[in-house]
Design goal:
mainly beta; 13-stranded antiparallel sheet; five-stranded antiparallel sheet; 2 helices; 26 strands; about 50% strand
């Protein structure tokens, strides 16, 4: 039987929703006040998701690495934080100060409310919600987001739904930033069905696309990766000595991208599905728009 418990910590940003299944040695932890991010996932005692502990040090790590954060209304970077839409100019907060860009949207640190939870012998379901009133002039477009996690013995399904609750259409992209553990990244492989990859300038802003520098399946070895791939199929397969992870997401080309990043400690790899490329508010590469009262659904399936 799955079980769902909540835990309040002294710093409310670190409050936890804990999902367990004793028979399969399964445990997962969601931090609702850090953008409903999934910070731990163990299956058969194997650690799959590399997240943060519920400590101040963990919070500092999250601010630097965005572990499992949802990236909305844009993933990756917006050059100088500036964009125009429908003839108006906007200035986003510069939170990538070293490169003077806006980075990863603005819901990664927002508090989500636990809307409902369901448990049974075969699954656990957790639904969280966040409402934005458009109070920030940098993105004055109201919306409501629901994020639903469904845990089963086969894996994890993540449902992301955003609804435009305002009176004007707005631009957007969606991404997810999970890190997947590996006891030996040297002996791990990644497979992506990709068409091309982005060319970045020295501020990590894409300037062009080029043919692939890597042949997939790719043996990671000691290669440092920070690349965005345009995909022909919304799919990734990661194999390491401990487990195999298959990712499928509901985007269809031309709204299908995967960012791959290897952190310096090299105990994990970020495999980030996205609906658009970097700087999409300006480049329009994969950019979506949402009309008033319309909703957009995005699903990521992970199997292990």
């Amino acid at each position: 039987m799955y079980r769902i418990n909540t835990k309040e910590n002294s710093n409310v940003s670190l409050n936890e929703i804990i999902i367990t299944h004793e028979e399969s040695n399964f445990k997962s932890i969601i931090f609702p006040n850090l953008g409903a991010s999934l910070q731990k996932l163990f299956n058969n005692d194997i650690e799959i998701i590399d997240g943060i502990p519920a400590t101040e040090d963990g919070l500092a790590i999250y601010k630097e690495r965005y572990n499992s954060s949802f990236l909305f209304p844009f993933p990756s970077r917006i050059e100088d934080g500036k964009y125009s839409f429908n003839g108006k100019e906007y200035q986003l907060e510069i939170n990538d100060k070293a490169l003077n860009n806006a980075l990863h949207g603005h819901i990664y640190n927002k508090p989500f409310k636990l809307k409902n939870k369901i448990v049974s012998k075969s699954k656990a379901k957790v639904k969280l919600t966040y409402k934005y009133l458009g109070e920030n002039n940098s993105f004055p477009f109201p919306y409501r987001i629901n994020i639903t996690y469904i845990f089963t013995k086969e894996g994890l399904k993540v449902r992301f739904k955003v609804k435009n609750t305002g009176t004007e259409k707005f631009p957007f992209g969606i991404g997810w930033h999970p890190y997947f553990m590996s006891s030996n990244l040297m002996d791990s492989t990644l497979n992506i069905k990709s068409l091309s990859q982005s060319v970045f300038n020295d501020r990590m802003i894409p300037t062009d696309e080029t043919s692939l520098n890597y042949k997939f399946p790719f043996n990671i070895n000691d290669v440092a990766l920070d690349n965005c791939f345009t995909t022909k199929e919304s799919f990734a397969l990661f194999k390491n000595p401990d487990y195999t992870m298959k990712m499928e997401f509901s985007s269809k080309p031309p709204n299908s991208f995967i960012q791959v990043y290897t952190p310096p400690n090299r105990n994990s790899i970020a495999i980030e599905p996205m609906t658009c490329g970097g700087n999409a508010f300006n480049s329009k590469n994969g950019l979506l728009t949402l009309k008033p009262n319309e909703a957009h659904k995005w699903i990521v399936n992970l199997s292990f």
